[in-house]
Amino acid sequence: MIDTVIKGGTAVTPAGVGDWDIGLEGEKIAVVALPGVLSTEGVRVIDAIGKIVVPGGVEAHAHAAANVQEGLRELVPGTPNAGPAVHSLGAIWGGTTTVVDFTPVNNEGDLAEGVHDFMGVWKGNAYTDYTTHVIYRNSNTPDSIARFGELVSAGFPSVKIFTTDIRPPGTEGRTLTPGGRLETGRLYDLMEQVSRHNGILAVHGEDDELVMYNYLMAQQRDQWSWHNMHLVHSKAVEDLAFRHVTRMAERTGAGMYFVHVTAKDGVDVIAEARSNGQPVYGEVLTLALSFDCSQYRADDGMKYHTYPSLKYEEDQDSLWDGIMGSDLAFTATDSSFTTYMDKIAGKNVETVRGGNIGIEIRMGVNYTDAVVKRGMSLERYVDVTSANAAKLLGLYPRKGAIAVGSDADFAFIDPSVKKTLSMADLHVRDYSPWEGWDIQGWPTTVMLRGKIMVDNGQLLGDANDGQLILRKIDQSVLQRPGV
User: Fold this and answer.
1) CA–centroid distance for 26 within its chain
2) pLDDT at residue 79, rounded to an integer
3) Is residue 183 scored above 90 in pLDDT?
4) Closest among 292, 289, 372 to 328, alpha carbons compared
5) How crowded is residue 294: how many other Cβ atoms within 10 Å of its Cβ?
6) How far apart, in whole angstroms, are the C-alpha atoms of residue 416 and residue 259?
7) For 409, which of 97, 259, 337, 350 could close a Cys bridge (C-beta 3.0–4.6 Å)?
8) How many whole angstroms separate alpha carbon 123 and alpha carbon 125?
């Protein structure tokens, strides 16, 4: 029985954009109807007049639990990294209702139980729904890799790997997880398991040997300051790694996507693989769509950095072409952040902090920069902010769609909002690379499974509202380019 009707908004559904009314039954969408068809007698009515109603955002790339479970480094003592509560708070304020974290895989015992234990820090700290990718690294045994199917069966079908240790040998916290990159033998084995069990592989793709040599050359060439990060984590390291991994995917039949694509070179490799019919996809960070490596030259240019690195203006243009078209599938943030003082404490290419504080601004900035400034359709906007990530990760159509049977997750975007972003507009931490950014259109009401979480500047939900979501990936995105 319908208990809530959302009236008067412009709804973006899988069938198109229209002035639909939306009827809810509990936590689910029960009906999408023409205006005036649904009775409002005795039900809660939510006025969406003048708003664009889209599915709640899906953030496919956030590092939150590890900040609690593994205690990632602090350059300035007493400036802790953000955990699930801060991540999900920023997300819900910004119109994102589902966050995907990362969890390392154990070698012994019940692998799925290990994932649940690691993600236990989200319980009671979640303003959004949440789930997790698993991570394999060189410290994982062949037996653990062979058991990947257990994780798929348990509802965790996406797995991330690193092809680089990111930072030089001997550096504290070289990667986000102990054990580092996954060397080729283990990666090939894992890709065969991914293909066999209908999982999907997420790849941080950089050629490790060239990255490490670039660090050596940066020392010799007096290029050790932080603003030379793009010379270490260069266009070439992306190109070489992407080509290596897509070839392995072709041989194993694994579905995969590259996280945080940064260069034209990477976009070109993805486009080539997709043209050959491979299920290869790309994620782009809002950070890389908004900024390029010239911003590193600012006095506090470290605030613009997350790994791999920003590249040049021509690369930024290629990223925009990819997300406006079909070569890149969705936007994300690589969210992992601390305070401003800690973020700017690293002054060279070895100590500069990664991490990005963009989880709150993603939906709003994407709307301004893609829809308003570049003419992206509302349907494509939904694809790149929620639907495509949901499809690739096995959340769709529960998440990422305004459709009968889907969770009642919504962001109401008010296109009349025009302002310059200040820290007073934001709700987590004490800095943002987007401070001073001109925006037009912003999420003003956010709903999670039928509950109003944020409305007109008020937080109405709490940290007990979020739930762990288990997943299963549809074959349509694993056999060919499906989005």
Assistant:
1) 28
2) 78
3) yes
4) 289
5) 15
6) 33
7) 97
8) 5
- For residues 17 and 68, state if they share a domain: no
| Radius of gyration for the alpha carbons in the chain, expressed in angstroms and rounded | 21
Instruction: Please determine, for residue 132, whether its predicted confidence score (pLDDT) is greater than 60.
Output: yes
Same domain assignment for residues 392 and 298:
yes
CB 447 within 8 Å of CB 437 = no
CB atoms within 10 A of CB 277: 11
Burial of 185 from C-beta contacts in 10 A (0-12 / 13-18 / 19+): exposed
Are residues 144 and 286 both part of a single domain?
yes
Cis ω for the linkage preceding 169 (within 30 of 0): no
Strand 44-47's sheet: what is its strand order?
Answer: 28-33, 21-25, 4-7, 44-47
* Cβ contact 148:193 at 8 Å: yes
Give the helix/strand (H/E) hosting 13.
strand 10-13
Coil vs helix vs strand at 204: strand
What helix, strand, coil percent values describe the chain, rounded to 5? 35, 20, 45
pLDDT at 75: 79
CA distances to 180, 260, 352, 433 from 306, in Å? 17, 9, 9, 12
Q: Report which DSSP code applies to 386.
A: I
Burial of 220 (0-12, 13-18, 19+ CB in 10 A): exposed
Do 263 and 383 have their domain in common? yes
E-state strands within 299-429: 330-332, 410-420
pTM over 0.90? The answer is: yes
Q: What is the mean pLDDT of residues 121-149?
A: 97
Q: Number of folded domains in the chain?
A: 2
User: What string of DSSP letters covers 156-190?
Assistant: --EEEEESS--S-TT-TT-SSSTT----HHHHHHH
pLDDT at residue 178 greater than cutoff 70? no
pLDDT at residue 78 in the model: 79
CA 68 to the chain's CA centroid:
19
Kindly state whether residues 45 and 93 are assigned to the same domain: no
pLDDT at position 177 is 45
Range of the domain at 29: 4-55+403-459
Given a contact cutoff of 8 angstroms between Cβ atoms, the answer to whether 334 and 286 are in contact is: no
